[in-house]
């Protein structure tokens, strides 16, 4: 069977179709490689999360042995009383209930000295603190509760202080109740406080206002929290921690944070919280934790959190790098093998393992600089060998340097990260679209 000869126009059309098919196949292969690189990126991301979990486990182990975050609640005056209940047979049944009285005035002053404990590669923030609780109780509100003096079991009254982790107490808890010296014992009979210390007190001669003063020396870790039980609560804290994070239901009225530490003061009124100064045991629905406040004592750097944020941009870096390489292929009529694209992608993935491993020994910024320099240096050298044009390879390395710098800025930002990220991506896409207009998509990719 005779083969029909193609006219020159048909041959040109066939060549054009072959050229377009070659470009299409190359684009599809690059897209498939990007999808394949999901595997190493996911593996690296899981590795970072595993290292983060290991760091958290190390922190929990140190906290268990040193002391956990502390929450100071109190003091609370607990007075048992008798309540008579009339039965159907007109007999009277006696029940023992409890009256809870909160301070009229409560002043808390403390000094928190932080230190870092090493557990393997990890630093865990712990602290020693000296805290003074002072103020007074006012008993004039007892009349509002309609409880007579004969019903109150004043000889069984106790003063209780909530301390979330008794393991952190370093010295005996002592104080003064008017002129009486107090010595506290572990344990509280108080449904509002799960853990703490208590001391029996004398209320034989109840006055309108009785002052108190209590000294605490406790250890803790990560945070120090307080509950504003006073009708007026004043809190003043000082610490050598230079990276505090104030948290809870109330923020300080005044704060000063410097390189050598911070100082902060709070003022809270009883009107700022949802429970009264005097209540009975029937009010067990009261949750004192709703009003707690204090400070988190943070490490200057959380390398794992920043590494997780940085790897979220891994696909952006890979896609843009592949796009740049593809444009260089077309414009300079070079050929980069799909396997070489794969090696370039793996080098970009390896950046994150370098970043995490180095940041466990150095600060994050220096680690980022080292990992970026190593990755860009490797890719520039490799592309120089592929393209045989050092100037083009160095130009691609410069573009990657700008991209990694842009990602680093996004990692450091919190409030404006989304805004800056969106604007940056828009500009990058606009540049790519502009460059694509200069490409003759019918230009073949020369075979080497």
Report a brief summary of the structure:
With 448 residues, this protein is α+β, with helices and mostly antiparallel strands. Helix content is 39%, strand content 29%.
Number of distinct helices: 8
Class from secondary-structure proportions: alpha+beta
Indicate the percent of residues in helices: 25-40%
Uncertain regions spanning at least 5 consecutive residues = 444-448
Kindly state the mean pLDDT as a whole number? Answer: 81
What is the total tally of β strands? Answer: 17
Report what the structure shows.
Strands 1, 2, 5, 8, 9, 11, 13, 16 and 17 form a nine-stranded mixed β-sheet that branches. The protein is elongated, with a radius of gyration of 35 Å. By secondary structure, the chain is α+β, with helices and mostly antiparallel strands. The chain has helices at residues 8-36, 38-65, 303-311, 314-332, 338-359, 364-387, 390-412, 417-437, and strands at residues 70-86, 92-101, 105-119, 122-138, 158-163, 174-177, 180-183, 185-186, 196-200, 209-221, 223-226, 232-239, 244-248, 254-258, 261-269, 278-280, 293-297. The chain contains eight helices and 17 strands.
